[in-house]
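Colleagues,

Please find the record for the two-part complex below.
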Amino acid sequence: MQAAIIHGDRDVRLENVPDPVLATDGPGSGLDAIVRVAASCVCGSDLWPYRGIDKVEAPRRIGHEFVGIVEEIGTNVENVRVGDFVIAPFHICDNTCLNCRNGWSVHCLHGGFWGSDPQTGGSADAGQGERVRVPLADGTLVVVPGRPDPSLIPALLTLSDVMPTGHHAAVSGGVSKDSTVAVVGDGAVGLCAVIAAKRLGAARIVAMSRHADRQELARQFGATDIVPERGEAGVAKVKEMFDGIGPDVVLECVGTKESMDQALRSARPGGQVGFVGVPYGGPLEVGTMFSSNVGVRGGVAPVRNYLDELLIDVLDGTIQPGRVFDAEMPLSDIPAAYAAMDERRAIKVLLRP
Amino acid sequence: MQAAIIHGDRDVRLENVPDPVLATDGPGSGLDAIVRVAASCVCGSDLWPYRGIDKVEAPRRIGHEFVGIVEEIGTNVENVRVGDFVIAPFHICDNTCLNCRNGWSVHCLHGGFWGSDPQTGGSADAGQGERVRVPLADGTLVVVPGRPDPSLIPALLTLSDVMPTGHHAAVSGGVSKDSTVAVVGDGAVGLCAVIAAKRLGAARIVAMSRHADRQELARQFGATDIVPERGEAGVAKVKEMFDGIGPDVVLECVGTKESMDQALRSARPGGQVGFVGVPYGGPLEVGTMFSSNVGVRGGVAPVRNYLDELLIDVLDGTIQPGRVFDAEMPLSDIPAAYAAMDERRAIKVLLRP
C-alpha cells in the first residue's frame, strides 16, 4: 500500500510501504484494528518538521488525522466491528487508565502518538496513508453510528484534531455563557476555536485575522468582530473594545512567542489564556502573569474525551467545522497539499486515498 | 510620629516622619482616613528590597500589612467611622470600578499600593508606622464589627495579606471538595495556603517543608502529609504519593524559578498550579505546560474581594491564621524583626507600636 513519508525539509513523498497486519504477539496483540482510510489531512503541526523547525532525523511516516472503515480487528477488540466507520483521534489511548478517567486521554498511561507503537516503542503507521494499524482500538477509535453521508466526512475528519483542539482552547480558557473572547490565530484551529467559543455561549468573539477569506469564515462560525491588527496594535485594539481592560478570555491558536505574548497581554486583569498552539519560540513571562493575574492553561487536547459530545453536534449539523477544508486533493498529490498549506494558499487540505 | 524607612540592603530604620493629614485638595480629597496602627508586620516580600534583590533607589516608607483604629475621616467617607477597628488590605482600591466589580480589586483602576498615592502618584504612608493615611478609605478598609478581642488581632492582621494570599493560591489552583493538593513553601503564605486548601474541602494536603516547627504548624492547619524533599526528589516523592501521576493541584508560595519548576512538574496531567510567590528567577517553561496540560494561574491577591468571607471564619474561630506569628516585637525593634525573618529565625513577626 501507499503512505506518506517525510524525508526532511519540504520533502514529503508518497511511497510503497508494507501492508499493516494485526499484532500477533507482544503486549498489544489482539487489541488492535486495521482501518482503511476514507479521508485524512495535513495539520499545521505537520508543517514544523516540513519546514525543518523540527529536525527529521530519519525518514518516517507522518499524519495523525484520519477517518475510515474498520477492515480487521484483533481477537480481543470489543467496541469496534469490521465495517464500522470510525474517527481516530490524533492520539492513541486505552480510555480506561487513571489519566483517561480523569479526562486526560492524551496522557494515557499506555497510549502514544501515531507513527510510533506505544506498546513496543517501535515504528508504526501514521495517518496519511491508505490503511492504518490502530493500537488499543477499543480505547482509541470512536464509532460513527450507521454509515455517514459523504457530505459529513470533512466535518467528521475535523474531529480527529482541529475541532476538539479548538474546543480545548475554549475549555482551557474557561469560556462559558456570556464570556467575552478574543481568538489569536486564523488557521483551522483558530477557526474551530471560534466555533467552540460560540457553542459554549460566548457573548462576543473577536477573531484576530488579516485574511479576507478567513475573516469571512470566522464570521460565519460566530465571530462578532474582526481585528486585523497584531502585536502591540492588536493588544491595544482588543483592550479598547472591552472597556479598556480587555476580554475575559483569549484563545491562543498559533504557538509562537509573539502570539502568546499578544494573548497574555490582551486578556483583562484576572482573565485567562487558553492555548493550544504547539509552543515554538520561548518561555512565558511569569512576571506578566503575576502582575495581571491572567492564567494560562492548555496544551495537547484530550481529543478522545471530547469526541462523544462534539460528534453529536456534528451529526445534527449544529456545528459545521468541515468548512475549514478549502482544498481537497488525492493522496497522490501529497507534496502539493503540504506546499499549499506551507504557502498559506489553503487553510486546510483534505486528502482522499 | 515614627515609621519604618528602608534605606538599602539590610538597612531598615525607625525614623521621625510628618504626622499624616487628610488630603484637602486634589482628586482624592475628602475620601481618605487616618488610621492609628494597632499591629503591623513584616512580609516575605519586604525581604526582596531588604536583601538588595529589589534595588532601593532612595529611602522610602515600607510595610503593607496593618490593622488599627480610625482616628479621622475625610468629608466624603461614608463606610468608615471614627473609632472603627479596620483591616487594611495590602492594596488600595475604590471597590467600585470595573476591575473591582469583576473580583479583581488589586487591579483597581484608581487604586495602588502602600507607599505611593494612587491619586497623586506621589509618596504616601506605608504600613509599618504609628499612623497611616489611607486613600480611598471607603473602598480600601474593612470594618471589624465591634471591638475585637485582643487575642484576635494576630488573625485579623493576617487578613491584610498572608491569609487572603494563601486563599488566592488555592482559588487560583481550583481547589475544591476532595481535591488533592501539594503546597510548595512553608513560609506564612504557604502555611495559610494549607489553611485555605483545608477550608475549601481538599481531601489530602501535602506540605513541602524541612523545618520541624513549620511541619508541626502545617499539620495543625490541616496538612495530611509532610514531604521534606525538594527539587527532583520532591517531585518524584509527590508523584509517587498520588498513584504515580501527582496531585490535582500544586500551590506555589515561594516565587523562585526552582519552586515554580517543582510545582509545575509535580501536578498531575491536566492539573493546575496556583501561584502567589512574587516571581524572582525567570520565565515559565511553556513547553512543559503544553505537554502536561498543567495550567498556571495566580498573582497578586485581590485581598479586598476575599476579606468579607474570610473575616467571618476568623471571627468565629473556624480558621486560626494568627498562629503564623511566632514572634512579636515593638515597632522600635524593627531592624531586629527584619533580621529574624531574613535569617529564618521567625516565620512572621508581629509589630506593636
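The two ends of chain A are 11 Å apart (CA to CA).

Comments are welcome before we finalize the supplementary table.
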